[in-house]
Amino acid sequence: MSASPLVRKLGALCLLSEEEIEFLEGLQNNTLNADRGRDFIVEGKDLRTTFIVIEGWAIRYSVLSNGRRQILSYALPGDILGLHVNFRATATYSASALTPLKLSVVDPRRVIEISQKFPIIAAGLSWCTAREFAILGDQAVRLGRLSARQRLAHLFLELWHRFALIGDNNGDWLEIPMTQQDLADTLGMSLVHTNRSLKSLRDIDLISVEKDHVRLNNVKALIEMSEFNPEHLSEFEI
Amino acid sequence: MSASPLVRKLGALCLLSEEEIEFLEGLQNNTLNADRGRDFIVEGKDLRTTFIVIEGWAIRYSVLSNGRRQILSYALPGDILGLHVNFRATATYSASALTPLKLSVVDPRRVIEISQKFPIIAAGLSWCTAREFAILGDQAVRLGRLSARQRLAHLFLELWHRFALIGDNNGDWLEIPMTQQDLADTLGMSLVHTNRSLKSLRDIDLISVEKDHVRLNNVKALIEMSEFNPEHLSEFEI
DNA sequence: CGAATTCTTGACCGGATTCAATTCTCGTGG
DNA sequence: CCACGAGAATTGAATCCGGTCAAGAATTCG
Fold first, then answer.
1. What residue stretches are annotated with the HTH crp-type domain (chains A, B) (predicted)?
2. What pLDDT, in 10s, does the model give residues B150-201?
3. From 1.10.8.100, 3.40.50.300, 1.20.1300.10, 1.10.10.10, which CATH number describes the B147-232 domain?
4. Taking residues B46-70, what's their average pLDDT?
5. Residue ranges covered by each domain of chain B
6. Contact B86 A231 (CB under 8 A)
């Protein structure tokens, strides 16, 4: 049996001992499957659980009273949701399965245990937190200061680089399980304009699209035109 | 001498022991003053320091190659910058003093020390982290799904509620040390449109503006019209 | 008092939204 | 195997919110 995505992710950061790996794997043995569309965290409801994504995609989002939705971030295998729930009891966002999802359900008290017993893992989780902040910061830049086409390219590049870290990259092809409505709700645009902007990226041959997949035809040019900064996601280097 | 803002903030969450208070105050005795406009964190540069804001306002921001700037968040007294720097060595954002600023400079190794020796404080910092995430998530909602007037109202409400926690609220009046250009860069809008939107909020009497201050004339109506959710910032309740 | 920054207002333009209709895709059941 | 229907993608047309350019008024501060 191969290592869990979280172990692979942290293992790419620093050398984990047998004991640490065992602990991390043991953390994830209480699993839960969620169908596409199923909410497993609901804004305003009690949240006293930490989730680790094992397989599939999840979204974090918030819905306004007029029905408009803003997707805040995507959670991929190895990502953790609700890492800091000890005090705050009510969720400030919702989370749902974008694809069939396999989660592990973790008692947050075990997270506290980590900082006392496994300093290396604790440092790794701290790194994950910093990374989440960087990703969310990039999302704010996208929403605030980029044009429609730039937003799309920027988001694709983020996801592509994130997959690179968990070693799930498929060449230039990127899995895109979300609908155009999901994309629109991520990038703060309308469905129609999302469609048109995608088309215009295709027209200038920067991307190719096939069922549920996008091909980044010219990563360098995409980085250039979208002001994407790969450093924000690069893994730790000595 | 009165307690530091950080102690007041965490003290509002949970009862701190003498020892814990002493430790937190001791953490902040290495101070640094920065003039308005002075960058103390620079994107792309090495960052191995944790800062705690003692007095004044700071901004976290990112600048694109075309010169456009996106302000990500405001740091107020008691807020911590660079809490999770142990691994990631390069800053993914810049930070600068919006007003004359008094910071304390903390060795991040002392932050690690906390999780081992002061579990209550560690829990408090974890709560701070969750709160920062909620604030940044709200920023994404503002940028992605709110109209210009809504964004302004939403931001004012955020700041007003944040001041409430550190006990620095001045009735309905809110200190606004930033220029309209700063506001524009926060809310992803142009300077001109920021000015016009402010005027339209004044015209319908939701706010009043005076030098460096805004008065929220009708908090309830502002919350209503801007879709602001105070729960995201409310402190921990039993 | 004078220079520089900040704020305000006008005019015009364009990117993005909205409404609406059509086409495409794909899972399901006859 | 194909017809059907629901969701998803695409395209057109009209509109509008917000951006850009430009100029002037008001503050602030040395």
1. 146-220
2. 999 999 999 999 998 877 777 788 999 999 999 999 999 999 999 999 999 9
3. 1.10.10.10
4. 96
5. 5-131, 147-232
6. no
pLDDT over threshold 60, residue B238:
no
- What letter does residue A79 receive in the DSSP assignment? -
Taking domain B5-131, whether its CATH number is 3.30.300.30 is answered by no
Residue ranges for chain A with pLDDT beneath 50: 237-238
Q: How far A183 CA lies from chain B's nearest CA (Å)?
A: 12
Q: Does B192 touch chain A (CB under 8 A)?
A: no
Q: Which of these, B140, B152, B216, B217, lies nearest to B182 by C-alpha position? A: B152
- Helix ranges (H only) for chain A are 5-13, 18-27, 108-117, 119-145, 148-165, 180-187, 191-203, 219-226
| B39-41/B94-97 β-pairing | antiparallel
Partners of A118 on chain B (C-beta within 8 Å) are none
Residues with Cβ within 8 Å of B75's Cβ and at least 6 positions away in sequence, in order, are B53, B57, B58, B59, B60, B81, B95
Q: Is the CB of A108 under 7 A from strand C?
A: no
Q: How many CB atoms are closer than 10 A to CB A10?
A: 23
